[in-house]
Specification:
This protein has 7 helices and 16 strands. The N and C termini lie far apart (75 Å). It is globular.
């Protein structure tokens, strides 16, 4: 037998040995990676199969029976793209909740409290900006996924970003929350763009930056919202306490990233990592003076459940989440009023455990 032919036959036999029986892993939709549902978007299913270009018969029949759907392959990754969602009138208001740096196992009651509050608040979508777990075990990843599933069963989509702590249990993160940490979900009036800044400390990659630019160039009239784990700006002259240079550089892409946000009128970039609230403008200045400054709001959110810090001169420190409200796609609110202050807070997030109607966020 010709040597090269023998090599090909052996490779094919090895592939069959590991690929049979034919198996399938659903990568999207899954917990943390919901389908796009905005009018005009094209919902997409993604699966990985144990053999290239082959789907299990039941899956193949179901996909082929979907009118107007198209199937594409990239070796053993299959993508089913459905017809565009029909254009329907959107509700004028849209509510997004952002949370990051979740509770470790010994503070699991804080995560439970968050789920209870979200069940009462019923936001249109929840973004989770990384550091989902501080215990890299199968049991705790499973527990966090189960809490997100509770929200999804209530009809509240959850969109998950990776943080630096996810790298300590990367196979577990991928198993529970999907194969791709960089992805887009169109929902309501928004295009939510999720980036991965934590593959190396505070970094973006050239491919991620190109992906971001391409998506900002194809918004289809939607309002872009970006989430990533690390803050875009360092604390700078506003530093106080434990920042220590943590976060904020994004290596060589920071200024180009800011320009993209300006050129595409991105209303907000959401991040965590500091376990402390802060809001910066496009020049990297802490805006603890007003909520009404022009341009992108670079928002850093307090921790939902892990240790709290004071990174900037902003004095408040509590576990919480951030409610962003949109009116016809325009961001109209991203802070919560401080009780008794008589003025709108420029930075504060919503404290965990405060009823929604008491902080001015109720519908």
């Amino acid at each position: 037998m010709i040597p090269w032919l023998r090599a090909y036959l052996l490779a094919a036999l090895c592939l069959l040995a590991v690929g049979l029986p034919l198996r399938l892993r659903e990568d999207r939709p899954r917990t943390g990676h919901p389908l796009s549902t905005a009018p005009g978007s094209r919902p997409t299913w993604e699966v990985t199969t144990s053999l290239p270009w082959l789907l299990p018969p039941a899956t193949r029949r179901a996909w082929q029976a979907t009118p107007g759907a198209t199937i594409t392959w990239r070796f053993n990754r299959a993508t089913l793209q459905l017809p565009a969602v029909p254009a329907t009138p959107l509700a004028p208001t849209f509510r997004l909740v952002f949370v990051a740096d979740l509770a470790p196992p010994d503070q699991a009651d804080l995560l439970e409290q968050f789920v209870v509050e979200m069940a009462a608040l019923r936001p249109d979508v929840i973004l989770v900006g990384g550091d989902l777990t501080y215990a890299e075990t199968e049991a705790w990843y499973g527990a966090v996924e189960a809490q997100f599933l509770r929200l999804e069963r209530l009809g509240i989509p959850v969109i998950v970003a990776a943080g630096n702590h996810e790298r300590k249990g990367w196979p577990l993160f991928l198993r529970h929350f999907g194969h791709s940490p960089t992805f887009r979900v169109d929902i309501g009036p928004l295009a939510v763009l999720t980036l991965d800044s934590a593959h190396g400390r505070d970094q973006l990659t050239p491919s991620q930056f190109a992906w971001l630019e391409a998506n900002l160039n194809t918004l289809g009239g939607r309002t872009p919202i970006i989430q990533l784990h690390h803050p875009v700006f360092p604390a700078g002259s506003a530093i106080k306490g434990e920042a220590g240079g943590s976060g904020g550089s994004l290596m060589g892409f920071q200024q180009a990233f800011v320009r993209l946000c300006r050129d595409h009128a991105v209303p907000a970039v959401l991040s965590g990592h500091w376990h402390s609230d802060a809001v910066f403008d496009s020049a990297g200045q802490l805006r603890d003076d007003t909520v009404d400054f022009p341009g992108t709001k670079f928002i850093v959110n307090t921790a939902l459940g892990n240790e709290l810090r004071q990174v900037t001169r902003w004095p408040q420190s509590y576990h919480g989440y951030r409610i962003l409200e949109f009116d016809r796609g325009s961001l109209v609110r991203y802070t919560v009023d401080e009780p008794g202050s008589g003025r709108r807070s420029p930075i504060a997030s919503t404290p965990l455990g405060v009823p929604a109607k008491a902080n001015g966020a109720g519908r």
